[in-house]
Amino acid sequence: MTQTSRLLALVSTALLLQGCASTGPPMKAACYHRDAADEIDIGYCEAVRSGNTLYISGTVGRGEMGAAVKTVYGRLDATLKANGLTFANVVKENVYTTDLDAFIADKDLRKPFYGTTFPAATWVQVQRLYVPALVLEVELTAVYPN
After folding, report:
1. Is residue 90 within 8 Å of 119, Cβ to Cβ?
2. Whole-prediction pTM value?
3. Is 60 helix (H, G, I), strand (E, B) or coil?
4. Fold for domain 26-143?
């Protein structure tokens, strides 16, 4: 190995260790599980952190929409808190519902969780969710402060 190739190897290693270069996707942290047995059976994690971003899987609710909204956002609040965040850290919200009109009618029930800081959002009506009795599924993306 020549002096130049040794130097290039050292620089490449240093860059990889500093995160300035990459040989693949960033490593993700261990999963946060709310119900590990059920989540492992289905094959997902409640939340996964990659770098300074937390991705929260779709959190579901059933029954009357108002009750589903309160249940889902309460669970999301618990997941955020378990990962050291709040709704103020949420930058993206995706809502999937089987009845968009009912969700819109009850949209104010989610506002207290966000306060005055709202994320980018997408709200979509779908024909059905994973379990037919479900009426609402919300996923969030949150960012840790620097």
Report:
1. yes
2. 0.77
3. strand
4. 60s Ribosomal Protein L30; Chain: A; (3.30.1330)
The DSSP-derived string for 70-113 is HHHHHHHHHHHHHTT--GGGEEEEEEEES-HHHHHHTGGGTHHH
> In this structure, are residues 144 and 89 in contact, taking their beta carbons and an 8 Å threshold?
yes
Instruction: Give the CA angle between residues 133, 32, 110 to the nearest 5°.
Output: 50
Amino acid at 12: S
- Phi and psi for 89 in degrees, rounded to 5? -90, -5
Q: Dmax over Cα atoms in the chain, in whole Å? A: 71
Q: Note the pLDDT tens digit of each residue in 25-83.
A: 555 465 666 666 776 777 777 888 988 999 999 999 999 999 999 999 999 999 999 99
- Cα 59 to Cα 14, 102, 110, distances in angstroms: 40, 18, 14
**CB neighbourhood size of 108 (10 A):** 10
